Amino acid sequence: MSLVRYEHLNGEEARQILTARRLAILPIGALEAHGPHLPVGTDNLLAQAIAERVAEQVGGVLLPLLPYGQVWSLQDFPGSLSISNEVLSGLLVDLGLSLQRQGAAILAVINGHIGNGAALQAAARRLHALQGPVMYVFTYPGLGEAATRICTSRPLPGGYFHADEIETSMVLYVAPEHVRLDRMIREEPRLPPDFPYRPVPWTEITRTGVLGDPTLATAEKGAALIEAIVAQIVSVLRLALQRLG
Fold first, then answer.
1. Sign of the torsion angle spanned by Cα atoms 132, 85, 42, 195
2. Rounded to whole angstroms, how far apart are CA atoms 62 and 8?
3. Which residue segments constitute the domains of the chain, with CATH numbers given?
4. What is the pTM of this model?
5. Which of 11, 16, 43, 191 is 20 to 30 A from 178 (CA-CA)?
6. Which residues form a coiled coil (predicted)?
């Protein structure tokens, strides 16, 4: 399907196309440190790239990227900007209700930042209570399984991966011009035994923000990872649209 960007439509077109397609797709990321070799907007680059591919395959209307997120773990690293869970959740609820008034029945959030998870789930539940659009939250679905097949590295407990082989491979695929190959360094995280059970600022586990070995990354690995993620999202959304009738 042709890619339809919301900001390129006039008002009547936006209402007509959302009413016809029923699906709004929102990429959301964050601004946070990603080691010396990746930009602070890495999560935004990935969310945007995945969302565009999903919109091309399943239809819907692609909303402008929301570039800010809840950055608690890396808030003390240079370059990190954060908004609260409450602000992020409230914004998404308001946006969802506004989109519903324009004809959207489904809001699919393509989330590039794991730290946004709690706020996104809270917004989805609030929209459900308000009988707003159904909000789907996609945070790299299928990545763990794909990484097991494709990469040497594995996500950390909790599904975390950061500036490592996995994430760097994906950026090499979608935005290679933003990867500083000459600044790649390997740093294994120093995870305390209770890491999965308490809030742990990442200043306790990494000096650079790198959690692994980005030197293992390739664009070919990134293409396979992105393809697996997009396929999973498209499958879910096609079923969701079928249920609407």
1. negative
2. 10
3. 6-244 (3.40.50.10310)
4. 0.97
5. 191
6. none
